[in-house]
Amino acid sequence: MDNNKGSVWVIAEQGKLGILDVSLQLIDKARQLADTLGSPVEVVSLGYQCELIGTQLIAAGADKVYIADDPATAVYQAELYTKIISQLFKQQQPNIVLVGSTFMGRELAPILAATLKTGLTAHCTDLCLDEKGILEQKIPAYGGMMTIVCPEKRPQMATVAKGVFGLPNPDNERTGEILTLEIPNDFKARIRTIEIVKEEVPSISLESADKIVAGGAGAQNIKGWNMIKELANLLGAGLGSTRPAVDEAWIKIDSMIGQSGKMVNPKLYIGIGLSGEQQHMVGIVDSEIMIAINNDEQSPVFSQVDYGIVDDCQLFLPELIKKLKAHQEQ
Amino acid sequence: MFKIAVCIKAVPDPELASKIKIDPKTGSLIRTNIPLVINPLDRNALEAALNIKSTQGAEITVFSMGPPQADTTLKQCLALGADQGILLSDIAFAGADAYSTALTLASGIKKAGEFDLVICGVSSSDGATEWVGPEISVHLGLPVVTMVSEISELTPEMIQLKANIENGYRKMEVDLPALLTVTMELNTPKNLSFSGIIKAKKKEIAVWGIKDLDISENLVGLKGSPTIVTEMNPLEKKREIEFIEGDRTEKANILVSKLIDAGVI
C-alpha cells in the first residue's frame, strides 16, 4: 500500500460534557485531509459510561470509531492509555495521527510517538498536504512560519491547540463502524492518580471573550500589572498574558495566549508592554481591531497591529482608564 | 541517598532570542551572537534536585546534549550544587529533532548508571515542544509525569506530587524510578553563590561522543530524526500601523474615540 494513503486518525479526548471541542475540530480537519488522500477517518476515544460517544464521533466525520468504555479508563492514565492506543496503532498502522494540545495530549502524544519510533510536531497552527500526500505541519518560529514534515516514519503525528480549526457541522445521517477496545486486565500501574482537583474557571473565559487585554514584561511590576487588569475589568475584557508575565507570577499560566497557550478570537485585542513575539501573536486569530501600547517605538509588535501608542504603560494606562470611565458614565 | 539525573539544555538567552529572525531572501536563520544560558525551566528541574539533596541527600548528575561551548552551562550547574556534569557532544548529534535528542540523552543516562529520578524542565525556551522529557522516559522504560508543580513526599520507593491539568491539578503517586518534567511553579531557583563557583572550578565536565554511547550513528542527529524542517517563511504583513500621536491626554482621547468608532465599547 502507498505509504501516504493510510487512515487519518484522531485521539479524541472526553471531558465532563462529552468529546472536547478540540477533538471535534481535529476530526473535521482529519476529514478534509482524508478526503484529499482518499482515506478513511478513524478515531480512538477512551472513557467510561460513554456509549453515546461513538455516534457523536461519526456525525462529526469519523468512519470508524474505537471506544474503550471501562472504569479503568474513566480518567486519563498515561501507562494504560499508552498500552491500549499503541497496541491499536501497531495493528492498524495509521498514516496520520492528530492529538489536541491539552494537558493529556501533550503528555500522551510524545509517549506514543517515542513508543512507535516516529516524529511528532508540537502545537501546529496549520496542516496541509504536499503533492505526494505528505503532511505539512506549520508552526510559528523566529518571526515567521516553519514547515515540518515526517517523510518516512509512520504515523505522522501532530498536536494542535483548541481553536486553530473550526468545529464540524454534525451530520446525523452519516454512518460508520463502532468497535469496542479490550482493556488489558493484568495491568499494574506505576503511576496512580489519587485525586483530581479542578479550580474555579475564571469568570471571563479567554476563548469566548470578544475583547482581550493582554500584558507582558513591559508592565514592569505588580503595580503596572494591576493597571492592565483594571483596564481589562473596565472593558469587560478577558485578561491574557505572555510568558514573561507568567514567569513574574503576576498571573497564572492558564491566561497565556499563543502557540503553547490559548488560541483566541476576539473583536478587540489590546497588547500592553509586550513585544509581539510570534509564539504569542499567532494565538490571536482574526481580531477585527488590534492595538498595541509599548514604550519602544521599534518594538516588532507595532508591525502587527492597527493602532500603536508609544508610551510607558504605567503612565499612559491611568489616563486611558480615566477617559474610559468618563465615557462609560455618559 | 537518591541518585538524580537532571537534563538541561543550553539555549540562546531568551531575553535576546527575539533577535533571531528569518532572512526573507534566503529563508535561513539570521543569528546574532547570542550567549547560551541554562534553559529557564531546567533551572527549576535542577533546583528540585538540589532541594532533595539538601533535605534527604542526593547525588546529582547533570546531562546536556549540545555544542562544546554548552560546557559552560553545565559548569554553572556544578557551581549551583550538582555533583557531576556530562556533555553529550558530537558532530553526529547535530540537527537532532525531539525524538533523536531524547534517544541520545537516554543513551547517555543509561551509560552513566541507574537513577531513582530523572528530572527535566517541561519545555525549552527555543524549541518549546515539551517532547524530550516524556520521550526520554519511553527510551528508559520509566513512568513519567509531566507539568509537575509540587513535590509533597519522597521515599526510596515512591514520590507524591501535584501536576497541572486544565484549571486544576492531579495529585499522584509514582513508583521510583521515574521521570518528571517540572513547571516554574515548583520552586524558585537560587542564584549562583561565590563559594559555589570556587568549588566548581576544580570539577571537570565529561564530554561523551557517539563512540562513548551504545547507539548506532544512524539513530542520532539529523539522520536519526523522523522530522525535518523543509521551509521557513517570514510572515506576510497583514496590518498597517497607525501611530496615535499627541500628549498623553490627547492619545487617550483619540484611542477612546477609535474604540467607539469600531463599536467595541
Quick synopsis:
The complex is a heterodimer of chains A (330) and B (265). Chain A contains 8 helices and 18 strands.
Task: Describe the secondary-structure layout.
The complex is a heterodimer of chains A (330) and B (265).
Chain A: E1 8-11, E2 14-15, E3 18-19, H1 21-37, E4 41-47, H2 53-60, E5 64-69, H3 78-92, E6 96-100, H4 103-115, E7 120-124, E8 126-129, E9 135-141, E10 144-149, E11 156-160, E12 177-180, E13 191-198, E14 211-215, H5 222-235, E15 238-241, H6 243-247, E16 268-272, H7 278-281, E17 289-294, E18 307-310, H8 313-329
Parallel strand pairs in A: 1-4, 1-6, 4-5, 5-12, 6-11, 7-11, 14-15, 14-16, 16-17, 17-18
Antiparallel strand pairs in A: 2-3, 8-9, 9-10
Helix pairs in contact in A: 3-4, 5-8
Chain B: E1 2-7, E2 10-12, E3 21-22, E4 29-30, E5 36-38, H1 40-56, E6 58-65, H2 71-80, E7 84-88, H3 98-112, E8 117-121, H4 132-140, E9 144-154, E10 158-165, E11 168-175, E12 178-182, H5 194-201, E13 205-208, E14 228-234, E15 242-243, H6 248-261
Parallel strand pairs in B: 1-6, 1-8, 6-7, 7-13, 8-12, 9-12
Antiparallel strand pairs in B: 2-5, 3-4, 9-10, 10-11
Helix pairs in contact in B: 2-5, 3-4
Structure in words:
Chain A has helices spanning 21-37, 53-60, 78-92, 103-115, 222-235, 243-247, 278-281, 313-329, and strands at 8-11, 14-15, 18-19, 41-47, 64-69, 96-100, 120-124, 126-129, 135-141, 144-149, 156-160, 177-180, 191-198, 211-215, 238-241, 268-272, 289-294, 307-310. Chain A is an alpha/beta fold and 330 residues long. Chain A folds into two domains: 8-180, Rossmann fold (3-Layer(aba) Sandwich); 206-329, TPP-binding domain (Rossmann fold), CATH 3.40.50.1220. In chain A, the strands form four sheets. Chain A has a seven-stranded parallel sheet with strand order 7-11-6-1-4-5-12, with helices on both faces. The model of chain A has no long low-confidence stretch (mean pLDDT 92). Chain B is of the alpha/beta class and 265 residues long. Chain B has one domain: HUPs (Rossmann fold), CATH 3.40.50.620. In chain B, 28% of the residues lie in helices and 30% in strands. Chain B is built from six helices and 15 strands. In chain B, a hairpin with a 3-residue loop joins strand 9 and strand 10 (158-165). In chain B, helix 2 crosses helix 5 (194-201) and helix 3 (98-112) packs across helix 4. Chain B starts with a strand and ends with a helix. Strand 13 of chain A pairs antiparallel with strand 11 of chain B.
